[in-house]
Amino acid sequence: MNVAASASASMSAAIHAEHLRKVYSHAPPGVAALDDLTLDVPTGRIYGLIGRNGAGKTTFVRIAATQLTKTSGVIEVLGHDVDQEPRVVRTQVACVPQESRPLYFLNVDEVVYLYLKLRGADSPDARRRTKDVLAELDLTEYAHQSVMRLSGGLRRRTLCAMVLASDAEVLFLDEPTTGLDPLARRGVWEAIRRTSRERRTLLLTTHYLDEAEALSARLALVEEGRLLLEGTPQDLRARVRYPYRVTVQTPFPREELEPYGRVTNIEGGYLVFAREDDAREVARRALDRGARLSMGPVSLEDIFLDVVGRSIQDDALPSDAEEGVFERA
Amino acid sequence: MSARNRLRSLFTLVLLNGIIPIRTQPLYLASILASPLSFLFFIYIVSAGRLLLYGVLGGMVLTMLSVGTSLQSDLTHYRHDLKFQDVVVASPVEAPTYVAGMALSELVYSIPALAVFVALFVYEGWATPFTVAVVTGVLLLVWGFASAFAFTLTTYFQDVRETFLFSPIISLVLTVLPPVYYPISALPKWAQFVARFSPTTYAAGLVQGAVGLAPLSLSSGIVDWSVLGAFTAALFLIAAFKARWRDP
Known about the structure:
The complex is a heterodimer of chains A (329) and B (248).
Chain A: H1 3-12, E1 13-22, E2 34-42, E3 46-50, H2 57-64, E4 72-77, E5 80-81, H3 86-90, E6 93-96, H4 108-118, H5 123-136, H6 152-164, E7 170-174, H7 182-197, E8 201-206, H8 209-215, E9 218-223, E10 226-231, H9 233-238, E11 244-249, H10 254-257, E12 261-266, E13 269-274, H11 276-288, E14 293-297, H12 300-308
Parallel strand pairs in A: 3-8, 3-9, 6-7, 7-8
Antiparallel strand pairs in A: 1-2, 1-4, 4-5, 9-10, 11-13, 11-14, 12-13
Chain B: H1 3-24, H2 27-46, H3 52-81, H4 84-89, H5 95-123, H6 129-154, H7 161-176, H8 189-195, H9 199-210, H10 218-242
């Protein structure tokens, strides 16, 4: 990237990282938490950072949120260098750190209200914002309950409410819905979407690929500190060689499926990645044999599995990951 | 951040870490009272009442030092267990405001203990403009260096359990060995020499001297104030340059 292009990208990006590198002092020699990471998070959008545990997502968030120093490279938030102008950056960001918990002696209302006061909001404004965000996240009924007595999911939702209620331009949510039940997750999703409609930038890290896909305008896939893939969910799908997935329950001979695409063993049957016509044909054959089946476009999980070579949930190598569904550059 | 917003943040921290927890669990106050009053009781019994007055002054100093000990635990707990410090770092609140607010909030817990000692101080007839000024000045400096030291230390801790390791050592160095609860003359010569390395020796010398429990000349007063002031300034400078607000 030339200097002019870099400057232009930086101007329009809420977060601009270039050749970012982080090596922790306690890390084994040669192991970098972030390695030559270059990416731009566009202003006013939700940006999903996905990757396995230890991929470097939290390290990136902590550097951008001024909580952690980088080893080398450039990182700017809203055009301000995080190292040179941390005070300016801090007035424009808010963060829910991974594994954070609210102060246990406060009630839900106080967690949000006092956080806003801490940031300098006056009382009427803090009161109004607190009331609005608690309603938005279905927390009003818990407003005067001590967080000590709440479930882990409600505590997490309270923390999300806290930063979503702030006036920060750039919000960092590091694994915001971990531990939430599906209904609560959707409540947080809706609040996140509303924040995005306010033209604020939201950097979301998550293990939940459905969440990343449902919320993010763009996604970055990070593995071992490196950026493997970046783009809109549509961009990622457009690069898939086999855009459809068909699951077929046995009894069904595997040899019959192999000409149609890539076949993977799954519990109780097969997963076939195929082009649209071939997927339809596999589905027709399965129906003829009376096998149970499901068919649809490939998921982000499929794409992740293919690019990284293992599932986002575990460290085990999948049995049939040798052949990719991706057109590699 | 404007001065007005800084003040707002400061008082929010006092509310958040001082007033609300006490409202939720008033036993905190009894817990903070326990340590200095135990010392006072112990000294009263052992000295048959002769050193009770030293105990009153020592109790005041110990109460301010305990702000540092409590601050150490709270800051470490908030940083590592709750990630609250990370939430604050990624906000307009600056490190000095955070530490000052947290240190002030710890002072709220000390109010009952201080009230008991101030009542005894007044009861003894010690309260004159001069003694009140000296004692207030000394207690503020002790509160300042204890808070600055606690903040610096906690930014190097990796776990809250490390505070349990350091607190008794700090307590030994700052309150047991130095003549906070007794006259320095009660110590053997070698111990008097060692005690001179502790800032609380100078704090105790000033408050004991102000009320007439120990000799205090103009020159020794100047030395005591200078050492205590320099020590506090040094710990503030160390906190400003060596404490880790952003992780390395």
